[in-house]
Amino acid sequence: MTQALIAVRDRRDRVAFGRLFDHFGPRLKAMLLRNGMRDGTAEDIVQEVMLTVWHKASQFDPHRAEASAWIYRIARNRQIDVVRRRPPPAPDVLEEQLDTAPDAAQMLALSQEARLLREAIAKLSPEQCRAIEHAYMEDMPHSQISQLTGLPLGTIKSRIRLGLDRLRHELQGLKP
């Protein structure tokens, strides 16, 4: 098949291109179908790939790759382009719960968890506490905390990580 692609590249040989199309068309379609493309989409991609092969045959270098590798790479790249252009799947619609008011047991549990969290935070060093407050209460990125405090970014990250580790240890008895 490399010779056929060279004929297309050098002489724009339509017969050689027909051989390439007959050989690679079904194989490309099968590959695309195995990779999750629908039948119509796979056929469209095969058409686009083979059109690209015709137009860009001048770029083919048999010393760098076999014809099959060159053509399959074009197909794979085209498939990636198609997948990236698809809109993301719509999120699932969650049903609204009718009774959203917490009951007494939930309120008591939440109050107890909040008290335990306050106690655990009080056991942190003031530096860890401030770093965690900036990151999680004020929703500041680590780089901004570093600029605000004048401390190196690594120091900020270490304080947050060590503080969170300490909080996890202190709160390990709570259910997730």
UniProtKB/TrEMBL annotation:
GO molecular function: DNA binding; sigma factor activity
One biological process term in Gene Ontology: DNA-templated transcription initiation
Domain RNA polymerase sigma-70 region span(s) in chain numbering: 20-86
Family to which this protein belongs: Belongs to the sigma-70 factor family. ECF subfamily.
Record bears the keyword Electron transport: no
Lineage: Bacteria, Pseudomonadati, Pseudomonadota, Alphaproteobacteria, Rhodobacterales
Domain of life: Bacteria
Domain RNA polymerase sigma factor 70 region 4 type: 115-167
Record keyword DNA-binding present: yes
Native species: Gemmobacter megaterium
Gene3D superfamilies xref list: 1.10.1740.10, Winged helix-like DNA-binding domain superfamily/Winged helix DNA-binding domain
Record keywords, A-Z: DNA-binding, Sigma factor, Transcription, Transcription regulation
Alphabetical list of PANTHER family matching this protein: RNA POLYMERASE ECF-TYPE SIGMA FACTO, RNA POLYMERASE SIGMA FACTOR SIGZ
Protein name (Swiss-Prot/TrEMBL): RNA polymerase sigma factor
Transmembrane segments annotated in the record for this chain: none
SUPFAM superfamilies per record: Sigma2 domain of RNA polymerase sigma factors, Sigma3 and sigma4 domains of RNA polymerase sigma factors
